[in-house]
Amino acid sequence: MDNSFSSILDSANSILILLPTKPFFDQVAAGLSLYLSLRGKKDVSISCPSPMTVEFNRLVAVNKISQELGNKNLVIKFVEYPAENIERVSADIENSEFKLTIIPKPGFSSPKKEQADLSYSGVTADTVILIGGANESHFPAISSEDFAGAKILHIGNRTLATPSKSGILSFARAGSSCSEVVGSLIKESELPLDIDMATNLLMGVEEGSNKFSSSEVNADTFQLVSELMRAGGRREQKPSPSRDNFPPGSIPGEKPEEEKKQAPKDWLEPKIYKGTTVS
Q1: Tell me, what DSSP letter sits at residue 144?
Q2: Which of 43, 44, 90, 48 lies closest to 67 in space, CA to CA?
Q3: Which fold has domain 5-70+122-230?
Q4: Statement: the pTM of the whole predicted model exceeds 0.85
Q5: Phi, psi (rounded to 5 degrees) for 100
Q6: Are 90 and 103 in contact, with CB atoms under 8 Å apart?
């Protein structure tokens, strides 16, 4: 049986990319890049148990990351409405449309529209891809029955510490970052790579490798960076520091502000001295 990364993707019907709890920037960049590459080929979603913070907003498609694991079941919940006020619930089909009617008990009002909360539950994915993480505790969802029968893969630049009989297929390999590993797998599997994916991966590699200072950076890292830039990827441009951000006198060769002030005009005029004594 062929267990290569590309063959597993080819046989998958629905894919869930799962980020670890409190992910690093590099891991989010890697997961989003893989999501974008698969989006046109497969039914794919991306989820993270932790909410996305401001630092991730510079990544393309970060708004596609959901804290919900799947969309198998639609759940309707009424927030701050006592369940005991409901008499019964009626479900009907009218003109090929589903209609759900909430009937309150006599003397009680119906739930308000703004109290209705819609969410999803249940995982339909037959293939789950874990990005980064150190052990299974970083992916608490995989212990759920929703994942029973799903094929679970792990991608990272560190091997995931798991029980010997976990059944998780590892595609971890040495690299400066998760983004470098994902970028290499995208290339090897001949998956699409556009400007947005390349930009995410570039930022991920740079962050994950601590601006290419990591001891794990090698020739393969720079080869991938070169290919990402050829694909249109853009490195993040940091604004140049302004002289105004430095305290007075902290820049070598620059005079303090008080020394820069123009001297009084009469200081520059010729001086005439007159004696006051008579010989």
Answers
A1: S
A2: 48
A3: inorganic pyrophosphatase (n-terminal core) (3.90.1640)
A4: no
A5: -115, 125
A6: yes
